[in-house]
Design goal:
Elements: E1 13-16, H1 28-47, E2 52-57, H2 63-72, H3 76-94, E3 100-102, H4 106-121, E4 126-135, E5 140-141, E6 147-150, E7 157-159, E8 161-162, E9 169-170, E10 176-180, E11 189-198, H5 204-214, H6 220-230, E12 237-238, E13 240-241, E14 258-259, H7 265-279, E15 297-303, H8 307-320, E16 330-334, E17 337-339, E18 342-343, H9 354-358, H10 363-373, E19 380-382, H11 384-412, E20 420-421, H12 424-441, H13 448-469, H14 478-495, H15 500-508, E21 525-526, H16 538-543
Parallel strand pairs: 1-2, 1-15, 2-3, 15-16, 17-19
Antiparallel strand pairs: 4-5, 4-11, 6-7, 6-10, 8-9, 11-12, 13-14, 17-18, 20-21
Helix pairs in contact: 1-10, 4-7, 5-8, 10-11, 10-13, 11-13, 12-13, 12-14, 13-14
Amino acid sequence: MRPPRPAEDDRPVLVLGPNPTPNGGMHLGHIAGPYLGGDVYARYQRARGRKVVFSTGTDDSQTFVVASARRLGVEPEQLCRDSTELIREALTAIGISFDGFGPFDQTYQDTVLDYFRALHQAGKFRLRTVKMPYLERTGEFLVEGLIEGECPVCLATSRGGLCETCCHPNNFDDLLDPHSTIDPRDIPVVRETTILVLPMEEYREQLTAYHEQWSSYWRPHLVQMVRDVLSRPLQDLPITYPLAWGMPAPFPETPGQVLNAWLELIPAGMYTSSYAAAQLGRDTTPGQLWLPEENMRIVHFLGFDNAYYFALAHMALLMAHGQKYIRPEWVLTNEFYELESEKFSTSKRHVLSVQELLLEVPRDPVRLYLALTAPEYQRTTFTRTGLDKVTRERLVEPWNRLAETIGKATANAAGEAPALPVSAQGRACAATMLARFDFHYEVPNYSLNRCADTILTQIARLGRLAAALDGRGLDEQPEAWGDLILQVRALLALSAPILIDLAAAARQAGGFDGVLEPGAFDVAQVAPFTPPLLSLTAADAAAHG
């Protein structure tokens, strides 16, 4: 089945962001990929008049919480609470417009458990005796965030369960030269244990068909990884682990074990989307929005390092439910975002938090630069020099010259400035802008990089038109001014998903109403107005209100 053309697809949109692990705060590397990507996409869909539910929530069950807590000398529960507040604070500060941030509460846990109980009752899981790393000193098995070694596929340094470099799974005793992440001197032995698994090979045919249908619309690295994984025997997917931290598995065959935390994330998405819908005024049961009769389309934003679970493991689990639930149609991955050409590292104090940066730089320039440099197809890097140079020379200064030129002409008009005529060419240019932005904002071509670059390109173009009119009154060349002002209004509307504070100021000034229907700019005349200005520093922004 060929997916509907986005311009013709007005189904409600379920936008999923990844569930952040509450083992610390959020740095720019987290924000620049799936969170900003999901936010800009959701804002654009709303502007086009589509119903949107955009949600996420924390992933408290991860073993990474335990590992971080032990290194910090705090209780995991306290780390979760503190980190969740920092995460929410960062997302709010940068303007991520989640409709709901689902709490890790009893309803969350009941939703996850019901999802897996249904599969267990249907006989989808198998008991397997496997060999797993075991630390005799502490008497515990080491999995995922508790163990590190070399990936058996690409030989890169990898944690347990999944390699962030090649994105292949490495279950059980696959890691080479493993050691504890809490104390690298702790070398595990191998011990047998019996767990429940999902036999992934049973879903090969369905997985292959799903990816053949959708992969031509996804980013190349994800497609390559899926093909590589499918070219090999599919590993059994661990459903339970013999751990102390996590959600207790409700299966009689595995007493005292917990659910594999990575596998919570789709039922968690069912819960958070229901939670978000409730914030929008619609009460639904968890999972209801994922039923075919709801006629939703799912657009999923995530880092490439998590792609195996979402593109293969979670798809197999959804398929194990039969046709009960819909599946993501669009999966948009991103690569790693670095800081000054080095990987963000909390342990090495090589980080920059959202909150720290926003103390110095206003939110709109930060969002624009992150969008422009987002790691969509390859690793990219944040540099403070680049942020300052790009936002000063290509965003703030040219926009302010453009805005001041229009403002001066409007202020010099005798009395109240009359509505200005718009030519056919002016309307055509505004329509062309809408079509071009739509191409970059909509799937399958969605690209933060291209959206941001198009904003800067249009600012420069409209600045040239304004410079040619500078010093001439509105009454001298009313049609030329009308064409310019219409296109500036169009740019304000089209850049609003990224430049959210400029858009808010423009709405207040009467610059645009936020509507982006196909004929939004097909008007015969336009009212003059004074566009708001941008600030280079947070101090300037605060001084100007």
